[in-house]
């Protein structure tokens, strides 16, 4: 029986080669897209599973005086040891601090080599008990046996030592607390498992350099959320109950501090496997993948697969008339409806199986391009063979049923008597379904095309928007060590002597970077209860002239003046507005900030135009710029004008080495730095662009096949009309009319869907475009033109048919 069904299936494929090829091509491309997307999604959602169950992170919800809400992936230093001791459900805890939080970069030295590091961590000794890593060398039971031990990531160890001895070697690490010597005690592979935490090195908080810094903040329960805290819960622990207990302990120890600062703080527990997809937290040190982005990819994959299934259903039901006689004869010969359903479902499974084999080839071919788009490579290899096989089996079952179920029931429902008398007609339900599915296909295509247009406009808007400062030709040289920062003045003088360097300034936080210092400033006659939250960025006196930031009132900073009591500040306009001042009124006024029985005083000397210090996803915040001392900065910024960029860089590096011979020279352009803020948005744009094109191609494949089928069914009608005097244009309108109406209906239906979906995405930007009607009209017009081009060949072919050739057998 099965052999007979297979014979019939392959004979049918050979009899209708073009339709079969269209089905197989559409399904193959769709399945290849789905395979790549689902493998990528599967990997993203599997992060941190290897660490084990019941491991959670503390996240902090802060509500500021002005009502602003912040959700931090970090917490304060003293919390973990106290709650572990007082809450029995917590069996273990570990705190992790990132030195990069303090604005410095780690410099590692071994013999004559020195280079910068990133993503190093300072941890409690219990770190490797809670978080699991694959060790390659060293003591796996106790990787941090003493306070001067350092555990290295495998790639870093290979970079430092090559193939030589690693364990027991001494290296120098210059970090936030200054240079220290460490003994390498173990090496681990950070890439062995998918995890949100991939440190380049691990050292202990008990280290003599780090311990005093930790102790400095051990009484701060509310502010200084500098660490990431992980808790191991026992199997009986209820997360909500543990959260309540943590809050009670926090109120007992930090309630007074919370009242002094005028903020409220509440801590929640987040399962570790959710960290990688939690990209909506403020000042989170870990870079993950947005859950919305993953959901968008999953939706795109499913929609593309549905489009291919729609093609199969449309073509199968459209060809029903050609197979009606086969169904009638088989029923007369005793084949039941159940047997016919089995046969037609089997045909769909065979076609899907053939498509699956091609899809693997297409996926392998598309893999390099796909990996560039997602910036997180996936592979078709033995390592994920089980996952790949699981998805292929799922695609076979789901697609086979989805594509084949309705055609199987539809074809098996034909009445033998009507079929054998030639009275079987295209049923109204099937005809309506075909039209509805064509509309559905083009609704998806138009929505995706409109998304391309809108995202492209928003990306260009971001690229071209005036940020309030001149970003052109700016070269940033980080001063990542204390020695480099203290050499700011000397380096500035050396660099400014170069002809192509037209200006040099210094700043704590480069535009486009986070400002880690904030405070609550209040006016004369007010208290901290009236304070507004401001970011505080320390800048050189010539910072504003350097960046062409317009002055609204007052004056720019002059040369640094020694004043240890009152600090001079310049406000942005938003800060002046929030304080209730006009720019002119703010000049000369005093601001105050109280903390731990100390009063900090600031005198406003000027107000400048707002600049976008942060991403355009965020609104402009109140900001003060504090005059720096002029001899210690964290970043040097050069205004350069040269056609020979490499020659200038070589000269700058030479000057750098004269001052800092043992410190590597590094740089980046400000434009590149600002552009990195929108990398995920560009990735989203590129992905939707590629998959929109694929969806349109799949839709057009089905539309082409349907137009060919409909034209062939109406050839005799066309012959009669032409014999009666109909012109080519009349025939053309008749043949393409029905399908054109469906495309227009799809266009009308797609507009509200596009508006809704794009508004959700655009709302993630504080500064965004407002798409006009023209955007959606353009998307619809593009799709209509593509649709008409697709059906035009068959329409013209039908219109030019010689009526003699069609009617001569009548």
From TrEMBL:
Molecular function via GO: transmembrane transporter activity
InterPro entries found in the cross-reference section: ABC3_permease_C, MacB_PCD, Macrolide_Exporter_MacB
Domain ABC3 transporter permease C-terminal, chain residue ranges per copy: 299-414, 691-803
PROSITE patterns: PROKAR_LIPOPROTEIN
Record's subcellular location: Cell membrane
Organism of provenance: Fulvivirga imtechensis AK7
Protein name (Swiss-Prot/TrEMBL): Putative FtsX-related transmembrane transport protein
Entry keyword annotation includes Membrane: yes
């Amino acid at each position: 029986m099965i052999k007979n069904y297979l014979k019939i299936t392959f004979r049918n494929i050979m009899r209708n080669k073009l339709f079969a090829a269209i089905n197989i091509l559409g399904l193959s491309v769709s399945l290849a897209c789905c395979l790549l997307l689902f493998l990528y999604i599967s990997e993203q959602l599997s992060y941190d599973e290897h660490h084990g169950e019941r491991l959670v992170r503390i996240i902090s919800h802060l509500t500021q005086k002005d009502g602003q809400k912040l959700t931090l992936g970090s917490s304060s230093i003293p919390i973990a040891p106290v709650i572990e001791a007082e809450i029995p459900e917590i069996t273990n805890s570990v705190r992790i601090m990132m030195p990069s939080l303090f604005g410095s970069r780690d410099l590692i030295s071994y013999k004559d080599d020195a280079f910068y590091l990133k993503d190093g961590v300072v941890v409690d000794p219990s770190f490797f008990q809670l978080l699991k890593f694959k060790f390659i060398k060293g003591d796996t039971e106790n990787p941090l046996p003493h306070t001067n031990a350092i555990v290295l990531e495998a790639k870093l160890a290979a970079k430092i030592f090559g193939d030589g001895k690693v364990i027991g070697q001494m290296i120098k690490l210059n970090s936030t607390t200054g240079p220290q010597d460490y003994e390498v005690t173990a090496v681990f592979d950070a890439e062995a498992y998918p995890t949100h935490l991939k440190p380049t090195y691990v050292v202990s908080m008990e280290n003599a350099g780090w311990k005093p810094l930790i102790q400095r903040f051990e009484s701060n329960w509310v502010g200084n959320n500098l660490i990431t805290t992980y808790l191991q819960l026992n199997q009986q622990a209820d997360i909500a109950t543990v959260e309540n207990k943590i809050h009670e302990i926090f109120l007992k120890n930090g309630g007074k501090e919370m009242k002094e600062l005028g903020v409220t703080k509440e801590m929640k527990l987040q399962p570790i496997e959710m960290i990688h997809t939690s990209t909506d937290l403020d000042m989170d040190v870990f870079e993950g993948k947005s859950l919305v982005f993953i959901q968008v990819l999953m939706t795109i994959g499913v929609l593309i697969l549905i489009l291919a299934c729609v093609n199969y259903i449309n073509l199968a039901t459209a060809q029903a008339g050609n197979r009606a006689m086969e169904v009638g004869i088989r029923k007369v010969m005793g084949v039941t409806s159940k047997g016919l359903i089995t046969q037609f479902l089997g045909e769909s499974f065979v076609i899907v199986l053939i498509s699956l084999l091609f899809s693997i080839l297409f996926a392998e071919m598309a893999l390099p391009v796909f990996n560039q788009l997602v910036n997180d490579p996936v592979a078709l290899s033995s390592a994920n063979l089980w996952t790949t096989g699981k998805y292929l089996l799922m695609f076979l079952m789901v697609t086979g049923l989805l594509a084949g179920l309705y055609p199987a029931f539809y074809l098996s429902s034909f009445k033998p008597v009507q079929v054998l008398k030639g009275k079987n007609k295209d049923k109204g339900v099937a005809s309506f379904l075909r039209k509805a599915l064509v509309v559905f296909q083009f609704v998806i295509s138009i929505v995706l095309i409109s998304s391309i247009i809108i995202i492209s406009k928003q990306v260009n808007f971001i690229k071209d928007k005036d940020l309030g400062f001149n970003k052109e030709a700016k070269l940033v040289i980080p001063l990542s060590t204390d020695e480099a920062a203290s050499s700011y003045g000397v380096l500035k003088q050396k660099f400014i002597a170069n002809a192509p360097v037209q200006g040099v300034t210094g700043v704590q936080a480069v535009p486009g970077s986070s400002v880690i210092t904030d405070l609550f400033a209040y006016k004369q006659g007010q208290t901290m209860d009236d304070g507004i939250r401001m970011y505080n960025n320390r800048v050189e006196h010539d910072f504003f002239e350097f960046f062409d930031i317009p002055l609204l009132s007052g004056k720019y900073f002059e040369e640094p003046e020694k004043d240890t009591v009152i600090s001079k500040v310049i406000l942005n306009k938003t800060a002046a507005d929030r304080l209730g001042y006009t720019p002119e009124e703010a000049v000369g006024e005093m601001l105050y900030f109280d903390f731990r029985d100390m009063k900090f005083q600031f005198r406003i000397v000027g107000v400048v135009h707002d600049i976008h210090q942060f991403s355009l996803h965020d609104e402009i915040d109140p900001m003060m710029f504090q005059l720096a001392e002029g001899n210690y900065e964290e970043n040097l910024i050069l205004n350069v004008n040269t056609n020979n960029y490499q020659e200038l860089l070589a000269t700058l590096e030479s000057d750098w080495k004269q001052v800092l011979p043992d410190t590597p020279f590094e740089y980046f352009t400000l434009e590149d730095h600002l552009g990195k803020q929108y990398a995920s948005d560009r990735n989203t744009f590129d992905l939707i662009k590629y998959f929109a094109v694929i969806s349109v191609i799949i839709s057009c494949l089905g539309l082409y096949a349907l137009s060919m089928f409909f034209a062939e069914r109406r050839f005799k009608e066309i012959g009669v009309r032409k014999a009666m005097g109909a012109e080519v244009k009349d025939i053309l309108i008749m043949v393409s009319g029905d399908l054109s109406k469906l495309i227009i209906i799809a266009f009308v239906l797609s507009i509200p869907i596009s508006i809704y979906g794009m508004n959700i995405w655009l709302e993630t930007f504080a500064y965004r475009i407002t798409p006009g009607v023209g955007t959606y009209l353009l998307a619809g017009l593009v799709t209509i033109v593509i649709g008409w081009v697709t059906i035009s060949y068959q329409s013209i072919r039908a219109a030019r048919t010689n009526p003699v050739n069609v009617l001569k057998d009548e």
